[in-house]
Amino acid sequence: MASVDGTVVEKGLVKGTNWWWGAFVIGLAGTILVTGIAPYVVQGTGALGIILIGVMTIAGCFLCLCLAELGTMWPDRTGGIPGYATESFRPLVGNTAARHIGGVSGWAYWLGWFPVAPINVILTASYLAVLFGFSPGHLVAPVGTTWGAPIGVTIIVICLVLLLAIFIPAYLGIRLGAAFATVLGVLSMLPITAMIFLPFFKPSSIHWGNVAGFHLPPHVHASWTFVMAWFFPILWNVIAMEAAACYVGECRGGARDAKIALTAEGVFGMFIYIMTPLMFVAVLGLALTSIDPLTMYLTYTNHIFGPGSWEKWFIGIPLILALALSVLNAIMGVGRSLYQAAEDGLLPRWFEHKNKHGVPDYAMGFNVVCAALLVLLGSPVRIYIISNGGYLLSCTLAFGGYFVYRHMRPDEPRPFRLPTFAKWGALAVFIVWTVIYFFGGWNSPKIVVGPTQGPGLYLLGLLIVALYAPLYWWRAWRERQLAARSPATPAGPAPGSAAAVPGDGGPRPGRMGGEPVAATGAGARAPGRRAAGGGPAAPGGGAAASILAGACPPGVAPRNRLSRARPS
To answer: Exposed site from 105, 290, 360, 439, fewest CB < 10 Å?
Structure first.
């Protein structure tokens, strides 16, 4: 253990924050996603949506608790779900297979989190148009009306400008990124919390009869297929509270901070996710079906206080800033996801490149390009379905991994331990979410987007997840080529082998080889080794890794400049 620039360094990670300023604040980037899903849910399911969101939010809180237990067991691992997947499945399937489960989980996690950027810039541009009264521009459908929805040219331009503008603090690294994270993290709580309490300042705007019986919208008939189809996009949003898990490895308080951060995130998230649709239905009622879901929050405010009221500015400006938090987190965090997977030998080395500020600029630039392409779909709900082809898979694997490790290693030291029955709860959620992933996902485009839709959006998400295989094979092929060009230099194990060590290319006791962990702690690096940007093996790295972790690889002091990655 040592002190670096006033922070505590332990096991290769910078212990530079506490649960509040680190994990919890960054985790709010997940909670703010309610701004995207709540309008669509209440429009499509009416008051029934309150129950649907509530049930899945409870499951999301349970996920946070499971991750808190796993996170306290491996406090040296950053990146959250993907890193835990590797460790938790190892007792069942062995080192190599577990590493690839972690790799698939990390790639799927990336697909789950980088679309936060295009979704929130679309919402931001729409709110700017309403607040400042300018036209969204001529409607176009760049990818056709089957795959996408019409979107204004002006909105597209604003989205692209916002993506480039937010990329600047991401590129500049830890100092500016951390400032954005702190300020915007706090700001994100204000509008979504204020939205819930605003109607109570004008009680005449609340009509509790709209909620009675949890009714469906007119001409909508519920079925299990209907419920499963809606559960699919709902889960993409409400389980995003787990973002806090990605940063517990950098908290000074270790197990204590993990417990507090993830519990607080779950409680706050449950409150926001249940109360937001409840107040929408209570205030707007039948008017819900005729409101633009992209700007429902401002319509909601106008319905309470009247058009032209100052309250819409009080809500609108902080809401726009809060959405910017999520965009920044998506660009920086999932950039680190790709970077870490490349360090682990699972993705092409191109993603390892770092700029002079020590951040993975190529990976973040790749995220911006992908985000710009998804903007052309024009509709957040379409992006939800594509994205959840990855995110729900990663989170479902987390429940499966928790059950495996708790069942096969029950006596492993756990600073934070859930009751024994929690493992059976995890298994039950794993089974239910698997059904939602396949059955609900297949039917979701038709029921959630429109009756003319086939399963194409869902299948596109599965196809992107499957790209992990050729990307890994490319990396393995390049490693063999490089080894053949340098016969005098002993080549390390091939990526994916039991002896391969993520980021180093050589064996390391206690990690992939199966020997006991060294006394210095899992993931500790020998003096003089090149600092890897995610510390110990964490396949996938954690797409929602905090802004701080995404901007400055763990194990490196914020003021240090990291060396550039090796050329491929």
So the answer is: 290
Q: Distance between CA atoms of 114 and 335, rounded to whole angstroms? A: 9
Query: For residues 568 and 471, what is the distance between their CA atoms, to the nearest angstrom?
Result: 14
Structural domain 17-478+538-551, CATH architecture: Up-down Bundle (1.20)
Q: 509: how many CB neighbours lie within 10 A of its CB?
A: 14
DSSP H stretches of helix in 436-467: 441-444, 456-466
In the block, residue with structure tokens 């604040």: 25
Q: Where are the alpha helices (DSSP H) in 46-173?
A: 48-73, 81-93, 95-113, 116-132, 144-147, 153-172
Give the end-to-end CA distance of the chain in Å, rounded to a whole number.
Answer: 34
Residues 115-136: pLDDT tens digits?
A: 999 999 999 999 999 888 889 9
pLDDT digits (tens, 9 = 90+) for 159-216: 999 999 988 888 886 555 555 556 666 676 778 888 899 899 899 999 998 898 888 8
C-alpha dist (Å) from residue 506 to 342, 491, 500, 503, 509? 15, 8, 6, 9, 10
Please tell me the total number of residues recorded for the chain in this structure. 568
Q: Where are the domains of the chain?
A: 17-478+538-551
Of the candidates 341, 424, 425, 437, the residue with the CA atom closest to the CA atom of residue 396: 437
